[in-house]
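Protocol step 4 of 5: obtain the predicted structure for the target chain.
Materials: sequence only (see below). No template structures provided, no constraints applied. The aim of this step is simply to have a reference model before the mutagenesis design in step 5. Sequence pasted as it appears in the construct record:
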Amino acid sequence: MTVAGIILAGGRSTRMGTPKADLEWHGSTLLGHAVEIIRRSVDGPIVVVRAPGQALPQVPVDIRIVDDHPADAGPLNALATGLEALDGHADVAVVCGVDTPMLTPAFVAVLMQALTTEVDVTLPRAGDRRHPIPAVVRVAVHPIARALVDDGQRALFALADACRSAEVDEGRLRAVDPALASLRNLNHPREYEAARAEPWSGPRDRIRI
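Step 4 output (structure tokens):
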């Protein structure tokens, strides 16, 4: 089974006020860091989905950049675009946003472990809340995702609800990430600044471009 990666980088970043992908993160950018984490988590190709014409910071040459189509159709459409780009190249995709820099390969591995032959989508649950990403999705469900988009759906949860999905409970997640930092996303400047100021114990080596 080939496991690929999809990084959703095309949001408008209206609350942040500046493109999230470009934000500095310990010598890299949020996008560059997301590429590093996903590369450590998968053995197949990595796709970055951006808005049409969106400028992105430099990434390694083997990272495929695809334009979301149609534009401004919501995160589910971006996921459908990423899955379509991987059709024929991978069996499963690890999906994350560009704004979750605390995500770890160990957390991804727990989501992967829940992907049995009877499951198409795995996603985390913490307390009474489930999270749409990070998630693991079978590439073969891309026609379902596209049909949902064509029907006017925008939310990522729509795909999980339409497929055979499994939620990974909080206890299993905390076993590898006690603070559930992998679920922490950065939407506002104050959130980014607070996260950036915290002591950093993540990978220091950078993927060669």
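Step 4 remarks: The two ends are 27 Å apart (CA to CA). The mean pLDDT is 91.
Proceed to step 5.
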